[in-house]
Design a protein that fits this description.
Layout (H helix, E strand, L loop, with lengths): L2 E5 L4 H9 L6 E6 L11 E3 L10 H4 L4 E4 L14 H22 L4 E5 L25 H20 L2 E7 L2 E2 L6 H10 L16 E2 H13 L6 E5 L7 H12 L10 H11 L2 H8 L7 H7 L7 H13 L2
Parallel strand pairs: 1-2, 1-4, 2-3, 4-5, 5-6, 6-9, 7-8
Length: 315
């Protein structure tokens, strides 16, 4: 039985992955900052804070594959005086330390969940592809790109089978952040000034991410490769809102507002990044996933949105 170490096991994706992999025949070891006494995970290991000094040796004993999800994630309201240094400490130094220790422990393959932010913040009519040059624009994206480079060097020197995945925004049962806030606005019937937006954005259901991670654990052709990941169904912001309102059973009030006014409102309120995500394009090409791994999305977007809404409504 393949033993998989999942880092960041108590995060949104980590919780899903630790429940999913045992159903597919994998033994899972869940690495968390501290163990959760009320968790139903079969095996937990506490590793404390993540940086270049973290000792992973105990967690790596007998592990075949590492799925590295743990990271200092992108935040809307940064509190650090030097955000890039804070991101590098966890995302670059911590990841490189894990990679080196994984090799020393005899780990065969490491799967690194990076971010589409390594490619950039938006597209201009042509989707990002796995062959594109990197173009990170913020501290988080830069740190994920540098972590990829550190792992590539380790793999080059040691033969570690490295798989890098850059997902777009992930949604699903238990999601928080902007999608949770959007659902709240729809549920309360708040009029939304986004009716005139004609952007195109890619999304990724957690179900499709889980299935792709399962494929990446074992597929021989995944080793040494980089993949961009999405559902394969791109939507405008108004289309997403209408889909959500339909599965929520709520009416939605959309009206058009000039883009310049939306951007000005974002500037006034300090929400320019949010406005950008709601109005700009960000699309990815996932043809490589089919061509190289014979993988196509297994979860329909409407189904995934329904599951997300159902779980959210019970909270």
């Amino acid at each position: 039985m393949t033993t998989v170490l999942v880092t960041g096991a108590n995060g949104f994706v980590g919780k899903h992955l630790c429940r999913y992999l045992p159903t597919k025949g994998y033994a899972v070891r869940a690495a968390q900052r501290v163990c959760q006494p009320d968790s139903n995970l079969a095996e937990q290991v506490a590793i404390g804070d993540i940086d270049g000094t973290t000792d992973w040796s105990g967690a790596l004993v007998g592990v075949d594959t590492v799925v590295h999800l743990a990271a200092r994630v992108h935040v809307m309201r940064e509190s650090e005086d030097d955000p890039l240094a804070a991101f590098r400490r966890v995302n670059v130094e911590g990841t490189a330390a894990l990679g080196r220790q994984a090799v020393a422990a005899g780990v065969r393959r490491m799967i690194y969940l990076s971010s589409i932010k390594v490619n950039g913040e938006k597209t201009h009519g042509v989707p990002f592809s796995a062959d594109d040059d990197a173009g990170p624009e913020d501290a988080y994206g830069i740190s994920k790109w540098e972590a990829e480079q550190a792992l590539r060097q380790i793999a080059l020197e040691t033969g570690l089978e490295l798989v890098i995945i850059r997902p777009v925004v992930i949604y699903g049962a238990g999601v928080k952040g902007n999608l949770q806030r959007l659902m709240s606005l729809i549920r309360r019937g708040v009029p939304l000034p986004l009716g005139g937006i004609q952007n195109r954005r890619s999304f990724l259901s957690v179900g499709n991410l889980l299935d792709f991670l399962r494929c990446a654990i074992d597929h021989p052709a995944a080793a040494g490769e980089l993949f961009l990941l999405a559902d394969g169904e791109d939507l405008s912001t108004p289309q997403l809102i209408r889909k959500l309102s339909k599965v929520m059973g709520c009416g939605v009030k959309l009206f058009p507002m000039p883009l310049s006014l939306l951007q000005f409102a974002g500037w006034l309120t300090g929400q320019s990044p949010v406005i950008a995500r709601l109005t700009e394009d960000l699309q990815v090409d996932i043809a490589k996933n089919r061509d190289r791994l014979d993988w196509t999305p297994v979860v329909d977007m409407d189904q995934a949105l329904q599951e997300m809404v159902d779980v959210n409504s019970r909270r």
